[in-house]
Each structure stands twice: as structure tokens, then as C-alpha cells.
Amino acid sequence: MGSKSSKSLGVLAVWALAAGGMVGGGIYTVLGVVIAVSAQWAWLAFLLTGLVALPSAYSYVFLTKKFHKEGGVFVFLEAIKAKNMAGNLAWMLILGYVLTISVYAFAFGHYVSFAFNFDPLITRLLALTIVASLVVLNLAGVGKLSKVEIAIVSVNLIVLFSLAIYGIINWDPNQLVSGIEPRPFWSSLIGGAAIFMAYEGFQLLTYEYSKIKKPKKYLMPTLLSAVGFVVILYILVALGATMLGGALSLVRFKEIALSISAQNAFGKTGIIVMTIAAAFATAAAINSTLFSTANLSKRIAKQNELPSWFNHTNTNDVPDRSIILLGALAAGMAVIGSLSSLVEAASLAFLCTFGIVNWIALKESDSKKWIPLCGIIISGIIGLALVFRLSISKPLALVAVGALVLLIVVGRPYLLKNTIKRSNQNESD
């Protein structure tokens, strides 16, 4: 579906795109990271973070239906007259999406490179190439191809589910800690905090609210069932893949953990299948996130919460400047960044965002307040766990994130004031 399409998304399409938005890059990038932190409790880490994603999905749909607008947390905050907070969070959310795209590009490069035994330089170039290619496709006006994405999601889910079930059939609990030290029970909380971005993606469907068939009736059960399915799938993959690959191998090769499991189970055939699945899944996730983030940037710019520069569109009605800038930033991070740092920084951004969405839903709800309240409490606990982890293992990364937040809060009003002033002067001239 092109960016100008007026076609509606049916229930199956919405379900597939929501599940694909999470799984597309999520499990391929975070499995080795969470095993390194939580070992035998990796499955519980996915469950705990799923307990944030489920009430957050409820809150996103509830607020989108209540305000009858697409645009996510930015629109929700504007609707409750928190305009300054809306602008600040919108900037941080866009940063979170850029980090997410970089993680997906990083995974694409590593999975493809592993299959062909490429050196590290080629791996980084592959990450750069996939982002550049999808930027070009988006600029050409073919950024959102729902039918293609649904096909990719369907194959992707079948591959992951098959791998998980095969691994569980070959159950050997010793594999959960093979070659590494067992972790305490509470490590599941730290591990879940580190990989929360694995559940990012479902909220992109709320940006397409006007294109969904009968959203008031079907969006809530469709989105909740998609998130619930992904929680179960992640748990199964965490257990099954570790049975096949062994904990030490998946930690040592965390960038390509699922390829290691597939290779151990099915040899060269396993690598081929997993590489194809990972490449298409991560590429589709990059494409969808880039498309949605660029259009979100355009919407925010129209509200004067981003410089008007972001509101520019090309002849295909595509926010070209936004797409080019977002793609360039993401590609740069993918080339120079490390997997764990990118994943954890993105996780912190989305934990903050989902916590605020649940807070707005609690404030606006007349009933079922316990659902967003659970989301607030659990996301708060996991968020504190992530800050604690970063302060110990990656203090520089935490300082960098804090500096960016401070820069946004302090510098954004000044930047917007000057850009709006210049824009008004140009119009008067």
C-alpha cells in the first residue's frame, strides 16, 4: 500500500502488522543480550516485559479511540493540554525510533554477513546499505507495502515458531546455563529491562487508525491478541533456541543468536532459512518504522513542535527531509554502535513513553483503571532496573542519554522559537 492509498486494513492485516512490528527485529536482536543477563531466566524476562506491553497496548487503543486521532502519545498529551510535555516526549520518541532502526540494521548486517562469512567491514556496510535502500524506496513513494509486509510476517512467524517447538521437543535444561554461570531469579527483571524494545512496534498501528476497518470494534481485541501471541512466542523461542544452541554460544554470538541455534539444529539448511527470515524481517521492520517515524515527524512539525524543515514533502507526498535525516542518523549508529548499547538505549526511551501513555489512560479512564495502573507500576519498576543496570555497566551511555534529554528539554523551546521566527520573516519578505 503506497502512502497515498485509501485502502483499509482488515483485522488479519492489523494483527499481522502489529505482531510483525514487534517480532520483525525484536527477537533477532535481543535473544543473546537477555541470555547474557538472565541466563536460565531469559523466558521470565520476556514475560515481565510482556506485562508492560499488554496494558500499554490497551492504553494506546483506548486513548486513540477516545480522542479519535492518530499520532500516538504526542496527540494524547496535546489532548490533555500538556503541549510542552508533548513536544519534549515527541523528540525523545523519535530518538527511540532512530535507535530502533539502527538496531534492526545492525541485525540485518550481522545475520547476512554470518551466512557468507563476510568480514566486519562488510557487515557494517550491509547495515548502511539496507537503510540507504529503504530510504530510496520511501522517497519513491513505495514505503508502506502492507501486503508484502504481511507475507514476510507470516513466513517469519512460521520459522520462529518451528525453531522454538523443535528446540522444546529436544528439551535439556542443562543447556539454559551451558558454559555460563546460573543467574539469580531477580536477574529476569534486569534482563527484561535491557531488552524492552523487543515489544516496540505494535503502537505504530495507532498511527494508521484512519486506515483501519471498523477500528472502534476490532482494534482493541486485535492488538491485544497480537501482543499476547508475541509474548508467548518470545518465551517459546527463548527456551527452544537455547536448547538447540546452548547458552554460551548464544551469548558469545549474540548478534546472530538465532542463526547459531538453527545451524546446530539443521546445519547449513538452518542457516539459509534463518538468514532469509532474519533479513526480510529486519528489512520490513526498518521500512515500517522509518515510514511511520517520518510521517510522525511531519505531523509534529505541522504543530510547530519540530522545525518546519521537517514538514517538507517531495512530489510523491513523502516527507523526504525527515526520511533522509532519520535514515542517516540510524545508519550512522548502526555502523559505529554496539548491539547491547543500542538495544538498552532504545528500551529506556520506550519504557518512558509507554509509562506516560499508561498514566494518561489512567487519568482519562472512567473504568478499568487497574489496567493502565499495572502498566505504570511494572514499567516504573523495570525502568528503574534499567537505569540501575546502565549506571553500573554503561555509565557513559546513561550520561549520554541524560544529556540528550536535558538538551531536548532546555534547547527545544529555544530552537523552535528561532526557527518559527525565521519562517515568519521569510513569509513577510
From TrEMBL:
Keywords: Cell membrane, Membrane, Transmembrane, Transmembrane helix. It comes from the Bacteria. The keyword Transcription regulation does not apply. It is a multi-pass membrane protein. It is found in: Cell membrane. The chain crosses the membrane at residues 12-35, 41-63, 89-109, 121-143, 150-169, 184-202, 223-251, 271-292, 322-339, 345-362, 369-390, 396-415. Coiled coil: none annotated. One of its GO terms (molecular function) is transmembrane transporter activity. Its main location: membrane. One of its GO terms (cellular component) is plasma membrane. InterPro entries: AA/rel_permease1, APC_superfamily. This is Amino acid permease. It comes from Leeuwenhoekiella aestuarii. The lineage of its organism: Bacteria, Pseudomonadati, Bacteroidota, Flavobacteriia, Flavobacteriales.
